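Good morning C.,

I know you're traveling, so I'll keep this short. The sequence:
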Amino acid sequence: MYLGISAYNHQSAAALINEEGELINYYREEQLSRIKGDNSFPKNSIKKLFETNNLKIDEIKNVIFYEKPLSAYLTPLKVAAKNLPDSLNLISHQLKNFKKTSLFCYVDLAKIYPGLEQRLLYIDHHLSHTLTALAYSESFENICSVVADGFGDRSTTSISYVNTPIEIKELWSCDYPYSLGLFYSAITDFLGFAINEGEYKVMGLAAFGKEDISLINKMNSLIFWDKNDKTIKMDLRYFEYHKNIFNSFNLKLEDLFGDSRNPLESLQLNNKDFQRFANIAFAAQEVLTNILKELFTHAYNLTGCSNFLFSGGVALNSASLRSIASLSFIKKIYIPPSPGDCGAAIGAAYYGFIKNKKNISYKKIVNLYPTLFNPESQYKKTIKIVSEKFEYLSKNIEESFLLASELINRGETIGSLISNAETGPRALGNRSLICNGQNLKAVSFLNTVIKDRSPFRPTAPAMKESTARKYFILDEELYDSYYSMTSTVVLKKNSPIKDYPIIHIDGTARLQIVEPNSTLDKLLLNLKKYNIEIIANSSLNISGDPTCYDLIDGLMVCELSPLKYLLTDYGLLKKLN
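The tokens, ready to paste straight into the viewer:
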């Protein structure tokens, strides 16, 4: 077995890959700790992997950490040292908190499983991302990897050529502090959203923006692709992330774009400054997308490859992917279901497998639900809570799906907490909130009442492939990504569903094509008799909380929100009044 770990920077996770190269288990630390965006050493996840799989220490051949700690620690310090005295608080913070950095991975691992630290390996951060994407692709040879994130070891963006899984060569990189990811995070911060959490809100807000050439030119002066040097350039005078632990931008950015948004004030469509902020989001999205297109073009020129892997946190920018896929030389883009740092634990574990198994055929990871869950133990733990607070509408699973579809047809929202959990940040049906995708009242209730989300953020639609092809223009270059809700699609002209509430204001949707025999597929089968072929799907949680993992989490969502129905492995529950 091979244990992969990501930790200390963004969301932490642990992954387990077996001797056949199969992803057999995976946990995000926030699922178990219930701390949103938990980036601590994933001790809960590792212990859960051992417990769930009845592992012994001797069964782990290698533990692989997803970055090189010394490089990751020193690189920001070196840059900060060049910006003294402005960077004094950042340097002080780094020195005071070095025990909370990846330098202590060895020690933290030894604390929970003494002896296991002797099998610890460190690999390049961007290699972890590349291997995560490679594990989910259909091609394991002659493919180009593009990685774009905030920061990893030394690079923020890189291009590599994958000849075979054991022959991967980095051909180009962009060094910190010049970073697409940190640029977009700074704009996220400027717009009043939380860094590492609110970037997808910027994407949603951008759809309400109007093209303002002057504004786009200003944005393009902050970050751009240098055609002569073939690299990303930034005007760092407007940013603070490389020299200040508290601020990502400075007053010069406000001189350029006007006042930043107060994050304590709600952003509504009728706010005075809504359009100004939407236009800024539009410009940032436009500039990011154009640089990514230049980056992929450079990657093609370097490698001659038409098939690409795309990973790193910037690959979560689903709104940019269609433009990238429109480049004439691209045949396929493979994006893993969890392209960010927490997913890089999978690539790290995969490195251990490749290192020890060089002469075998490689298989694509197809399991989108590797996070093992024991419903029987959860049932025993929650039986008292269920008996006091809920009633069973049915304990028969087939009848429960039938009743759930009837409730959806009546305009109700259903929570689902069934079987194993999803890999990435997108709920795909097993940890979801679900309602009729054409019912405006139901979608609004799900989005703004249960989830307490801003109305400019769309709810994603889920449907069968035949339905998707009927209503949307699908990019075959991105086809695999539709199963993990990673990319947006555009409605066909004069589509009859153009007024459905799951369609964004710009005529796009972040589509999910449901897998055969999945939770959502079974619901759609029952909904067919009601002529409902599109359902709205969002993660099962309330605002500020991680997506649910176990049954207790799902029951808590019902307790803390107006959600009344929960579809589980043991039947359909209804909250008592």
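Safe travels,
E.
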